[in-house]
Amino acid sequence: MARASAVIAFVMISVCLPLICLAQAASSSAPSSPMITGTVTYLVRMALPPGAAIDVRLEDVSRADAPATIVAENIFASAGKQVPIPFQLPYSANDIQASHRYSVRAQITVEDKLLFTTTQAYPVITGGAPTSVNLVLQPASSGPAASKSASGAQADAGKAGPPALRGTYWKLTELNGQPPASPMGKNVAHLTLDESESRDAGSTGCNRMTGAFEVVADSLHFKAGVTTMMACPEPLMTQEQSFTKALLSVTSYRINGKTLELLAGDKTVAKFKAGKPTQTPQ
Questions:
Q1: CB 105 within 8 A of CB 123
Q2: Is the pLDDT of residue 273 over 60?
Q3: pLDDT over 90 for what percent of the chain?
Q4: Statement: residue 153 has pLDDT above 60
Q5: β-pair partners for 210
Q6: Number of Cβ atoms within 10 Å of the Cβ of 205
Q7: Which has the higher per-residue pLDDT, 190 or 5?
């Protein structure tokens, strides 16, 4: 009787083993989570100090009237590595909507002090955008004042960095792909973002304007502001309407040399050049 039971048990085990192997095979072939890959680098001749942390984020930038939403984030130590540093940013496919726009940004900090950050949009995933990006970061305004080589040698002192987003007088040079209208006297269209408060001011080329803004790394959003009520001839009135509408659509920015570009998603809606005021504010 015992021999018969053993035979039955052996048969049952023999039948079950293929099922176990099938389950294991299915588990090993299960698809891994999707991810964004790429590298983080900067063009300044400076070695990353010990303790540097790299923060890479995947953001939903679909809404022009709201701050970007973080979809995924990966914060990791540089661990003595120097740029370019590779990264992997896993995300859940359930968080992605085909009709939305997504962008990756990054920053490098040391003890909560921001050293480098992205200043332009890097679209990914949807709309034909890639899932691998090489991020080029720019020095933060609060970062090192002078560039150094990896060996610690002083860089050329004559090479000035790009102007800061805040505190710079930005003169409008292009609006929706077109040059600005001729100003009335010295009242050129321009924009200035306050250095200490989240307030902006400027001129549409017709009326003076003030408002508020929110900036986080390379994400930038303007809130509805107010303007003076002076009537101006065309095409200045049309430019004023286009200018204020363009500001409300902005989701990010980038600075190349002395040029500031304001972007709505991946579209450049306005360009400015750093300069000096041409009139005394009234």
A1: no
A2: yes
A3: 52
A4: no
A5: 201, 226
A6: 23
A7: 190
Q: How confident is the model at residue 66 (pLDDT cuts 50, 70, 90)?
A: low
Closest CA to 221 of 58, 66, 59: 66
Of 252 and 4, more confident: 252
**Residue ranges in 121-235 assigned as alpha helix (H):** none
Please give the Cα distance from 132 to 222 (Å, whole number). 30
Per the DSSP assignment, residues forming a β-bridge with 10 are: none
Angle, CA of 217, 262 and 107, to the nearest 5°? 15
Which residues of the chain form beta strands (DSSP E)? 35-42, 52-60, 69-77, 85-90, 102-110, 113-117, 123-124, 132-139, 169-175, 190-193, 199-203, 208-216, 219-227, 252-256, 259-264, 267-275
Residues of the chain with pLDDT > 70, as a percent, come to 78
Computed on alpha carbons and rounded to an integer, the radius of gyration of the chain in Å comes to: 27
Place of tokens 């400076």: 46
CA distances from 164 to 13, 142, 257, 258 (A): 72, 10, 10, 9
> From the CB of residue 77, how many other CB atoms can be counted at a distance below 10 Å?
11
Cβ atoms of residues 48 and 143 within 8 Å? no
Paired sense of beta strands 132-139 and 35-42, if any: parallel
User: 80's torsion region: left (phi>0), alpha (psi -120 to 50) or beta?
Assistant: left
| pLDDT for 42 | 94
Residue with structure tokens 């080589």? 149
- Distances 266 to 62, 112, 275 between C-alpha atoms, Å: 10, 29, 26
